[in-house]
Amino acid sequence: MDNKYLGLTPPMGWNSWNTFTEEINEKVVRESADAMVESGLADCGYEYVVIDDCWSLRERDKNGRLQADPEKFPSGIKALADYIHSKGLKFGMYSCDGPLTCARYPGSFDHEFIDADTLAEWGVDFLKYDNCFKPAIAGNILYRRMAMALRNCGRDILFSACNWGAEESEKWIRSTGAHMYRSTGDIRDSWQSIKSLALSQICKISHSGSYCFNDIDMLVVGMYGKSTNEYIANADISACTDIDYRTHFAFWCMMNSPLMIGCDIRNMNEATKKILTNRDLIAINQDIEGRSPYYLGSTPETPREYFWMYKMLSNGDIALGVFNFSDKKRGMALQLFDLGLPATTGKCLRAYDCVNGEDFGILPQSVYVHVEPHDCKIFRCRIEDIK
Ligand code: GLA
Question: 279 with 306, same domain?
């Protein structure tokens, strides 16, 4: 690989799956690339436009190569890649370590090197690599094999592994060469799903870091139950509010998760745009050191539904997050002593509220805030002398 910064910070972009599932085509992808630029998402750092499953024909060609479905992609993948690049964006695609993808299109098992070469020829910059139909005896070698193929295909391709956190992947996935890896099952557009994925990740945060980030799955912000797949839409169970979406986004930012948007970015409302373009939260997510947050609670394996966490930032600031995943309003206390900053140091914290975009003033030694159900606060704090 030539680009030594590939995967240095959590990848940001858009992925077709949550909203479009199998109803993906060239028009949607081009329009989404247009929208990424016109809506200001690209200016905030979103760069990858990724086609998920269901883009190919059911058979390889006579040379064993993957071929795009000409009805969905009449101009071909290379032309689509060129279009996306012409907008200053990067292009991602999807395959799987088994002989079939999860939606039963051809997977890359036993074709890893030829597929990596094909992706490189097309101008692909990102590969999401799923885990369906993997032969049981393969263990984790298939992620290693595809990483080798990608690193030797002559193009910088970011490797997004997707084995859903199975087989304790946090313990070995970094060694394969993956730049990010799904550490969860699939997200659905509901608060229950956001909450259960979020709480399941607290015990895994120390495994996440630069060049291999834990991926809590694609964002559902702004979907409002709109998906071609009923299971993902989940609308019969519960629709998310904008507060739910905001907390979802803030948590993904604090956790250094990749930020892959899953809604239809061609039709975002103002609330969705505001959440996804919160530059203060994105700056925390993209901090160059990629340090994991620290959970200020006793048992990360069975975390409380409401908690504080903090993250050391490279410029000396501290990001302080307080999350309430419960259904009740909570009063939440924090002693600066617990961050390692008692008054005896002569220092205090000046806080900026990143969610509301306003100065919050000097924090007292004993901080106490009320957090509404499903809500959160994220403070970016600067260390100052006590006056
Ligand atoms: C799996 C992945 C999803 C999506 C689908 C596509 O379920 O976890 O993110 O890629 O496959 O079939």
Answer: no
Taking the centre of ligand 1 as the mean of its atom positions, its distance from the CA of residue 262, in whole angstroms, is 12
Q: What is the mean pLDDT of residues 213-228?
A: 97
> 21 C-alpha to center of ligand 1: Å?
9
Clarify whether residues 135 and 212 are in a common domain.
Answer: yes
The answer to whether residues 275 and 327 belong to one domain is no
Is a pLDDT exceeding 80 seen at residue 236?
no
Pocket (CB within 6 angstroms of ligand 1): 17, 52-53, 101-103, 130, 162, 164, 186
142: helix, coil or strand? helix
**Which structural domain, as residue segments, surrounds residue 213?**
12-285
66 and 28 within one domain: yes
* Structural domain includes residue 2: no
Q: What is the DSSP letter of 62?
A: T
Which residue puts its alpha carbon closest to atom 6 of ligand 1?
53
CATH number for the domain that contains residue 244: 3.20.20.70
Taking all residues of the chain, what is their mean pLDDT, rounded to a whole number?
Answer: 96
In a domain, 4, yes or no: no
pLDDT in tens, 165-182: 999 999 999 999 999 999
**How many independent structural domains does the chain possess?**
2
| Ligand 1 atom 1 nearest Cα | 102
Contact 119, 93 (CB under 8 A): yes
Q: Is 61 exposed, middle or buried (0-12, 13-18, 19+ CB in 10 A)?
A: exposed
Separation in Å, CA 380 to CA 87, 280, 312: 33, 8, 10
CATH at 371: 2.60.40.1180
Task: Read off the amino acid at residue 150.
Answer: L
CA angle 85, 88, 94 (to 5 degrees): 50
Residues serving a catalytic function are 130, 186
Q: If you average pLDDT over residues 192-218, what whole number do you get?
A: 97
Distances (CA, A) of 173 to 79, 127, 206, 357: 33, 15, 14, 37
Cβ atoms < 10 Å from Cβ of 379: 23
Which residue's entry shows tokens 């000409």?
A: 70
How many whole angstroms separate alpha carbon 131 and alpha carbon 252?
23
Statement to judge: residues 266 and 368 lie in one domain: no
Rounded distance from Cα 139 to ligand 1 centre (Å): 19
Residue 185 CA, closest ligand 1 atom number: 8
Are 216 and 119 part of one and the same domain? yes
